[in-house]
Design a protein that fits this description.
Blueprint: E1 2-4, H1 12-28, E2 30-38, H2 42-53, E3 58-62, E4 83-84, E5 87-88, H3 92-103, H4 120-133, E6 137-140, E7 143-149, E8 157-163, E9 166-177, H5 183-187, E10 192-193, E11 204-208, H6 218-230, E12 251-252, H7 263-285, E13 294-298, E14 309-310, H8 318-323, E15 330-333, E16 338-341, E17 348-351, E18 360-362, E19 374-376, H9 385-391, H10 394-414, H11 423-432
Parallel strand pairs: 2-3, 2-9, 3-6, 9-19
Antiparallel strand pairs: 1-7, 4-5, 7-8, 8-9, 10-14, 11-12, 11-13, 15-18, 16-17
Helix pairs in contact: 2-4, 2-10, 3-4, 3-10, 10-11
Length: 441
Amino acid sequence: MKWVSAGGRIGPIGLALALLVGARSAGADQKACDVLVVGGGSAGVVAAIQAGRMGAKTILVEAGSQMGGAATVGGVNSPIEFSVHGRQRIRGIGWEWVIKTVELDDGKMPGSHEHWRINAPLYAIVAEELLLQAGVEIRYYEAPSSVAEDASAPYRWTVVTSAMGVPRTIRCRQLVDCTGNGAVCALAGAERMREAEVMPGSLTYTIKHAVDLRKLDKAAVEKKFAEAVAKGEMQPSDARHGILSSLGYQAGNYVYGADNSTAEARTDTNLRGRQSVLRMLRFIRSLPGGETAQLATMSPEVGVRETYRVKGECVVTVDDYLSGKVWEDSIAYGTYQVDLHKNEWKDFDRRHLSPGVVPTVPLRALIPQGKENLLVAGRCLSADRLAMSGLRVQAVCMATGQAAGAAAALASKKGSSPSKVGTAELKAVLKANGAIVPGLD
């Protein structure tokens, strides 16, 4: 058995500690499954449902308390985009999840993604229902602390998790990383990629106030905000869309250097995001009509746009993306523009898809380089930074999650690895489960 750490190597002391944790966890809690999915966001939920529906014994581990990831915890409750150039290109389990939520809410599908706000708490509960119906075991408040690989064992991966101070061991035939930052792949010794700079994150919230926007002296408010920035009382990033937009239905800020790939970085990101909200609340209370303003809602966490990406057998480049390249093993479509946020609102590297161009994602971008029986899906699959700025949206994460879940279940059933699953068979399974698949649509 080979133990690996985030850097791919572990010393003698670390090995002894890892074995001790494994031994302790063996007495505390042991489970075995066909497919272990880590991360309950858009990709992870769909991956686990797909694997479960195919008869694979599936466990979904989520460090938080609810499903949905960025759509629920991160406050980005706009599951876009399922269509491109006026034609739907993503459907399947992710679309089913959305439809079931909307049917239990107001029943109205939006005409434009710009104003599409799904009921986030309901969305999280519907995800749980779909998972349980698929026979998936849900394990909240649990996160991997180490990963061991034994290529000769029936259960190739042994994952030790920490569950609120209790170590647990999960042995699985197939391991799927849907963490959003490739954390599991790092523990398994796979290579990750990232740039020194990351896109800013955003925290969404609403402030209830009595400011009459029709009578508001907008120029005076903007001047007052600029003066507060000059005094250090406010920061320009506190009003992501401009100060006036923060008085509207939903406010949002920019949190520069937003990172949730470590506990320390995640803490810092959220502390800075929430302090920004306090500054805005106090500023609005200084306006005529805002004296009794209240913080009405706030997302649980800052929505983070990028951290790590896992280097796969194929790295999707921005040229591949914008040209609509189709590989023999393309298993999902991309639907969003290149959308790299920079340091100020309206400062983007934004490149729209040309008419008729629809990007695709190959299965090899879901397979970490040099690894067997390990898959990655969602925001940390294998792509360069610009391509990922389009692939990171929720609908695409769902599509790649469904492909990963299907590939893992097929590989488990065959006693093989995802890289050896026939592309034609995988595509047929995806289509049978409602997905729109390149070459079969």
